[in-house]
Amino acid sequence: MAEEKSYHHGNLREALLMAGLELLQEQGASGFSLRACAARAGVSHAAPAHHFGDMKTLLSTIAAGGYMALAQTMNTARKSAGTDAARAIEAIAAAYIGFAMGNSALFSLMMDGERTDGANADLLEGVAALKAEIAAVAAPASRRTGPAGPHTPTLMETFLWSMLQGLSQLAIAGRLEEGGAISRQASDLVKTVSTLMLEG
Fold this sequence. Notes:
Homeodomain-like_sf; DNA-binding; MT1864/Rv1816-like_C
């Protein structure tokens, strides 16, 4: 009866996603199952398959939510930095690395091409939102001309995302100096790279 009531009000899908996220945070993707997700949500074991089809689709939808949350966090940080291009890069870097460290299991899933479906519409939308935030701060760098000539926006966006991803992985693995959400070592590197980008 409880399952029917939740489904009638359209809450079951969100309940399953919340249960899945909680399980992911507690056990990681390797210990994830549709049955465990259903049990956590308090519904029948068939409920997740009814809404998501299979585990990969459910995990892809959870990952998509992670991308959207990260993009929103970066958007807030970017806007708080004002119009200064270097400060904007530093702000989204701190937001990106801080999110990765605070949500390591979700962040790992977001970057897991085996457990998620790269063609999933929700996931594609989430990735697009994240890339838009990176593009917003990489744009000034792509307009500069240095010794190597002008750089395409795509090149600068990929370069910046690669740096953010690499620093996040190092931070999660404990390979950077201690120092809160973003270490002094990472912060100094971001400043150096942003200067190089913006000066061509």
